[in-house]
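README, section 4: Worked example with a bound small molecule

Sections 1 through 3 covered apo chains. Here we extend the same pipeline to holo records, where the ligand is supplied as SMILES alongside the sequence. The molecule in this example is NAP. Nothing else about the input changes; the structure line simply encodes the ligand pose together with the chain.
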Amino acid sequence: VTLEPCNHIGRTGPCSQALVDAGVRRVVYAQRDPNPVAAGGAATLRAAGVEVEGGLLEDEARAVNREWTFAVDHGRPFVTWKFATTLDGRSAAADGTSRWVSSRAARVDTHRLRALCDTMLVGTNTIDVDDPLLTVRDEQDRPLARQPLRAVMGLRDLSADRRVFDDSASTVQLRTQDPAKALAELYSLDRQHVFLEGGPTLAAAFLEAGLVDEVVAYVAPMLLGAGRPAVGDLGITTIAEALHLNVTDVTVLEPAAPGDDTNLRLTGSLTFKEG
Ligand SMILES: NC(=O)c1ccc[n+]([C@@H]2O[C@H](COP(=O)([O-])OP(=O)(O)OC[C@H]3O[C@@H](n4cnc5c(N)ncnc54)[C@H](OP(=O)(O)O)[C@@H]3O)[C@@H](O)[C@H]2O)c1
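The generated complex, written as structure tokens:
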């Protein structure tokens, strides 16, 4: 098994005791359970005379369970920041229009990534300006059966007729401007993977707080010359202070239909300075 059999009663009883009761004589697991509430299963098994081996391919197992492991280790959800930008770093034109900066292939790809997370997070102004539905849909625009939680962060009251409040998925408003508090609230709701979709103001707040764990950038071959920056002011005044993306993947997204653009998807992580 990938994870050390648990030793606690959660949605189901303790797995380690179930294995003992079932007469299993040898258990091999990859990843030690980092969750203090559930840990200790290996000891229970050994005490019952079961042969136990742990830690085989532990790094690989942690990678398979990346977001869950991160959330348990850090006491907050893993944050993937996704944004779409033009070549000159704009997220919207001067008149506020932003549909569509990214290509159809990039939008389909975004839905694939949304489906892997359990929460989508945007700022209140994106709800006011774009009125997004924030659901996960397939290539035919049909909603998937399992929908992540829709979370909106900010202090203002939002109009109840915004599409994010429809009944196609659950929605919470996080009435704070503090990224750490928002993540703590989401963790208390058992959330482990937040897909931060902007806009630029909210993204800048998470970057300034060092609370972005993964970046997914869609770059469109488009120039606007003016308009909203892809990310708000980070307080960086000199090139030596730039945040660098440690790129782990570059993928060319070919046009999905005639007339569609070719987009680039860059994935990576950032190294934040302490303090
Ligand atoms: N290209 C992309 O990937 C992308 C993605 C999303 C949006 N957009 C575009 O971005 C534009 C909206 O961007 P935006 O930056 O104005 O909106 P935003 O980041 O969605 O929301 C900004 C609002 O969030 C609240 N907020 C929460 N935490 C905050 C903090 N720490 N600091 C400051 N404000 C905080 C504030 O409202 P309260 O007063 O309510 O607290 C603030 O006005 C739209 O044009 C949209 O189309 C682009």
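What to look for in the output: The chain has a mean pLDDT of 94. The CA atoms of residues 70 and 78 lie 6 Å apart.

Section 5 describes how to batch many such records.
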